[in-house]
Amino acid sequence: MNRHVKIVCTLGPASSSPEVMEKMLKAGMDIARFNLAHGTLEEHRQLISEVRSLGQKLKLPLGILVDLPGLKRGRGDIKSVFGQHLDFAFSQNADFVALSFISSVRQVREVKQLLRNMKADIPVIVKIEEARALEESGALLEAGEGIMVARGDLALDISIEKVPTAQKRLISEANRCGKPVITATQMLESMVRSASPTRAEATDVANAVLDGSDALMLSEETATGSYPVEATETMVKIALEAEAILPYEEMLRSRGQDVSPETSDAAARAACQMAYQVQAKAIVAFTTSGTTALRVSKYRPRHPILAVTPSESVVSRLALSWGVLPIKKHEPANLEEVFELAGEATLETNLARSGDLVVVIAGIPLTVPGSTNLVKIHSI
Question: What is the pTM of this model?
C-alpha cells in the first residue's frame, strides 16, 4: 500500500548498527533524526554517513533532520547558541534543521540569516514547545519551512490537558498554509521496553494521522529503546490503518475554500480534482525546487504524488512531505519528454501500468521554479 504519512526515526545507540538501520529503512523510516543534545558530533557524523549510504544502496528516499538543542542549553545571542550546530548541519548536508525552544519570529529570522551567510540552503523546522511559540504559531509557520509539535516540553509549559487541542490547532494551521508538520514525543513510548504498544498509544498515533500530520516521530523508541525496528513497523501499520478511513474527497473540498489566488496553487488543486474524477493511478509532479509537489500535497489527494526532480537534495527534502514519493530524473528538454519521463517514472515505481491514466503537472517554461501552469491527463 502507498503510505501518505511519513515516519521520522531518531537514531542513537539502539539503532547505530548498519543492520538495524537497514531494517528500519525497509520498515518505513523516511527521515533520520539526529538529536545533537545527546552524543558527540563525531558519533552523529558517522551515523549520518552510514544511514545515507544505506538509503542510496536500497534506493529509498531518505531525509536527514538535524535537531539543534540551541536555546534549551542556555540563553544568549542566536549565533552563540546555534552557530556551532548550524556549522555541523551544513557540513553534513542536512536536509532540515529543527530549532529548539524558539519563542519569536525574530529568532527564526536570525537563524535563517546565519544560514544565508554560510550559503547554506537548509529548510528550518520550528519546534513548538513553549506557550510563547504556541501564541506566535502562525507567524512562526510563515517564517520557517515547517513545524514540529513537541508535546513533551509543550505540556510542561502550558499544562498537559491543553496539549491535545494545541496539537489539533497547530496541525490545522500548518495544513492550511501547506507546510509540513511533525507530531512528536511519546507516541509509542512503551515500546522503549515492550515489543508492542498500549492501546492508548495506538489510538494516539491514529489520531495524529487523522488530525492531518505530515509526519510522525519516534524518539527514545528508536534511539535508546529495545525494539527500534518493531517500533518503526508498528508506527507504519497504525498509520496505514488510519489513512484507510481518511475522508480524502472531503479534505479536497474543504481545502478548496482557502485557495490562494496563484496559478501554481490553482494547477495543484485542479490536478487533485482531475485525478479523483478519472480515477488516475498517480499524480506526477515535475519540480525543480519541490514547491509543485508541496502544493499538490497541500490538497491531500488519495493518489500517490510522484515528484520527478533532477535534484538529489529535493528528493531528500520531499521525503518529509505527505503523500510524496520523490524520484530523481534528468531535466526534460521539452514537453514531449515530460510525458515520456512521466510514463517511465510511474512504471519504474510500480504506481501504474501501460494503459493506465495519470495526471501530470508541470510548469512551462520547464526550468523556471514556481511556474506551475500545466495539468494534463496522460495515458501511460
Answer: 0.94
